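Supplementary Methods S3. Complex input for the S-adenosylmethionine-bound model.
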Amino acid sequence: MEKGVDLKAYRSSFLMRHLESRAKWIGMKQIEQYPFYLKNHPEELQNFLDSISIKVTSFFRDSAPFRDFETLVIPELLKKKDGKLKIWSAGCATGEEAYSIAILLRKALEKEKKRWDIEILGTDMNEKFLEKAAGGKYSLKEVEGVNSALLEKFFKSVDGRSFEIKIFLKNWMKFQKHDLLKSDGFPGQDVIFCRNVFIYLNREAQKNLVFKFVNNLSDFGFLVLGRSELMLAEAASLFTPVSLSGRIYQKRRAIKGGKKWENEC
Ligand SMILES: C[S@@+](CC[C@H](N)C(=O)[O-])C[C@H]1O[C@@H](n2cnc3c(N)ncnc32)[C@H](O)[C@@H]1O
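Predicted complex, serialized as structure tokens:
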């Protein structure tokens, strides 16, 4: 992870928790000592930044969003006439979310006659996570959420204890370093998954991010949030809820005349 992460955007309780745990790990009695330690040990900054990059993730995490993505969203996406789909997994950690999306799409496309051009982009600020995502290799424990039929179809067993995503699925994927709090993003997305990232951010940063996603979604594109993340009231009028349990929302209005939605609240 690069230094220069905008820490002001994160919830103070979240930052405090991680400061305390770093201080304890170093062996400090009082957290007030931490800034002095940081001054004398510049390498500690990276340790702290790594500690706030939470890697908890899994294939088909929470099941409802993926069930509803498969049954409600994919059929809508496949009505597209141009045969092109762009999906962004923002804050993808080690890639399980992005590959879960790819697996469901591939399953759906098996029944399709039309040729589809698919791009699934996974981004994160943590380079180590992205390396693992690009490698697409997971332990037996990490593939627990994948049923045996899907495991057989989309993974190859490496040594009996780890499983690698098959190449035809990897060919759809692109993993790229990107700080969600900094650059504008990747326009023209049909779907954006951003799950379990908002929970770490303060309200202002959440608002900026949701408007950034509005601007990156194509007309009537879908936004998928995490289980404990609701659509913000300030942006609710721009979306139609598709699945409340799956936290799936469809962008309601087209951006007219290139209008960009700003956080005006
Ligand atoms: C808990 S994981 C969520 C992974 C996956 N979306 C899921 O729900 O299973 C949160 C991820 O967000 C990433 N993240 C946090 N802040 C970020 C930022 N400003 N820009 C990009 N990624 C960020 C972390 O590095 C971490 O990989």
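Residues 53-57, 61, 91-93, 97, 124-126, 129, 179-181, 195-197, 226 surround S-adenosylmethionine (CB under 6 Å). The chain has nine helices and ten strands.
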